[in-house]
Design a protein that fits this description.
The complex is a heterodimer of chains A (about 600) and B (about 100). Chain A has about 600 residues and is mainly α. Chain A has 24 helices and 2 strands. Chain A has a two-stranded antiparallel ribbon. Chain A starts with a helix and ends with a helix. The chains are: A mainly alpha (about 600), B mainly alpha (about 100). Chains A and B meet through helix 24 of A and helix 1 of B.
Chain lengths: ~600, ~100
Amino acid sequence: MTLALVVALPLAGAIVIALFGGRLSRSLIGLIATGALALAFGAALAIAQAFAAGKGTLVAELGPWLPIRGADLTLRIDPLTLPLVVMVTGISALICLYSIDYLGHDTGAQRYFAALDLFVFAMLLIVAASNLLLLFAGWELVGLCSYLLIAHYRERPVAASAGVKAFLVNRVGDAAFLVGIFVIFASFHTVALDELTTRPPLLAASALLLVGALAKSAQLPLHVWLPDAMEGPTPVSALIHAATMVTAGVVLLLRLAPLLHGDVLSDAAVIGAATALFAAIVALAQTDHKRVLAWSTISQIGLMFVGAGIGAAFAALFHLLSHAFFKAALFLGSGSVMHATDDELDMRRLGGLARRTPLTTLAFACGALGLAAIPPAAGFFSKEQIAAAALAHPALLVVVLATSAVTALYAGRLFALVFIAPAASEQARGAHESPPLMLAPLLVLAAGALVFGLLVSAGAVPLGVAGATEAPLALSVTSAALAVAGAALGLALFWRGPRSIVPLSLADVARRGFLIDDLYAAALVAPFRSLARLLDTGSEALVVQRSVDAVAWIVGRGGVIVRRAQGGYVRVYEAMLLAAAVVLLAYWSLR
Amino acid sequence: MPTEAYLLLGAGLFALGAAGVVTRTSALSVLIAVELMLNAVNLTFVAAARRYAQVDGGVIAFFVIAVAAAEVAVGLGIIIDLARRKTSVDVDDAADLRG
């Protein structure tokens, strides 16, 4: 019952806002949305309490759905997914609270909050679904909501096309995921997860599911949608990155780990490692502070894929949760910076905000500490877990450590450029602190980013999954040293303001994500566009337009002929009637 | 008299009426011609009733007479309205509904 409540409350909030939001004031809509999420969070905490008291799993059977074995409306929570449910509801509630003031003047608030609640509902469905089809329903809903929210500023063409891009790239993964489900169903005739976990893993289905996870989690080579998704409102970015969307791929890998073939899992780890390092380097070259965070999410999710791929479920889950805290704090901090500086995104035009917006700076610093994995922030402990799990795979370990160093470097650069460097524009000089309703969630998340790792490491917050490894002291020292050194270097290089260290052309290539986007544009979008143009001028004009014209012409000519009979003279009609009667009579009598 | 004679007379009257309906331009004449056609049919019904010694044909003839009365009422109404609108009762003047 509580479980059904957790999932249903956000949906109810979305429906209420969608149906009746038009008559309510903007802040009331926001309060309803936040209230629904906060209540869901409360219910999730109640479940957590029950689990702490020794409950193993919680199942809510809501009724039958499809006439397929296992495809019922059934939710289940186990110790693995419980922390996710608590995190998703809690962080979403904070982000939603923050959005009330952030969208204080937005005419699309009803749309926004309805989609936000629906988004959380969809993610909870992914986390708590008991079978593959229900999970897929949530998966699709997440894609839909991401489209709605990324394209929230729909009057801006960039935002609209970013929404479409996210939707389309995700579609690639969704299609693979669906085919994967078909393969599994064709082999085992069931979609229930608890039945499937006892079956031998299938290589093809596992690979297809992995493609789905890659697209949703923005991993190479399907990462291109995420940086563009920055066109959405900043709290949406926080939601997508921290709580509801990109982590879905990791959740999928963790939940379906028993179904996935070992080869595919190790592929996931390799792809994750490659993505982590690649995206970290790209993040280093960004000039837009939101895009730094976007690329850093891609990179951090890559680390989670490494953890999930090498079977370190605890490490991946731990990093997912601590990432949720610090990334939400960073994004909301970024939003607060934008709020303070009239939506200035370019770091080269910012600076000096530390003095003008002290609380935002404090929160952002906590988030950045988490991201850079400097002890004792949350990221340090979770990243250390991943590194410790990767000890058996030297190549992966090297990549993970290198990523950590680069991450700390760009985190330091980001913080230095936005908050410490001399103010570089009017907006930066005129910055003002955000309203308390925005600062409160920000500070809560910042505190989480700071202490969450300690709490988990000390055992105060149980994650429910066993597998915490004691990292060797040498590894801890190495990763801490790398993080501190990277962050210090970043701060030292950029505290006076932006400067170029590598040749500009190279930096530009890196800033554009090593041109993978341009590659797609040239290899996929351009041919498709030419084909569309060909069809437009070729088949559309020659075939479709001509045939429509021909039909119209035939009807017109026919009308000209037939209307001659309609002269309007009654006597002509009477004569026709008589003639028809004579013909009919003749026919009947001669037959 | 053989029944055929009545039938022939009925057919002749019907043809006359039909010709009148098609050729006459005065609405009143058309109405009279229609009346002629109806009564030609009546004659046929009555002749058949007599030939087979059954009342059915006579009954139908009465129905036709009743219907014809109603038809004349409606027809005259239409003609009066036509006369008001067109200041003539020529059916060829009422040819506004053309294609």
